[in-house]
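note to self — DONT lose this again. spent like an hour looking for the file last time. sequence + predicted structure for the chain T wanted, 183 res
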Amino acid sequence: MTGVRKGLAKVEVALRWDPSPAGTPANDLDLVAAVYSAADPHGTPVQLVHFGSRSPDGTISLNRDSHTGQGFGYDEVMILELHRMPPESARVVIGVVIQDSGAGTGRGDGRAKTFADVAGTGFRIREGHTDLAQGDFAGLPAATAATVGEFTRDGSGAWSLDVRLAGFDTDPESFTRAMGGVR
């Protein structure tokens, strides 16, 4: 077969950031995936996958979870097996959230950490050895969370990626409710 594309199948989303300077609180960023049904593609997620969890059917898993950004290359890696998702799953939104209440920023102002406070941020979305998208959060300096992309299933069942870098100024729980809304 040549020239036939069946859509995306197994995708890796990776996140990196630099550790915080010595003597300051650690930077803790987390990947989040929200799965939406075809019946309500912008409503309440039917699945929410983040640190310490995986999708009940095993189609989304977080293989690496860092609380400090220490390591070589990408610190968090999430695998999405889109080809195995049930037919009623029509949309998956990928986000990144900074885990910080504002008390531990080291600034003394009570303000939550933003992407401006975290050096060396970056994300990569790939299928196999092919990079589909990559970028950073430099354009969202005031955001505490961001969406990086969404996967959607078309009428034939094929999945595609739309890179959607959008910032949010909200706490992690509110972000998980707002990340899939119409923008």
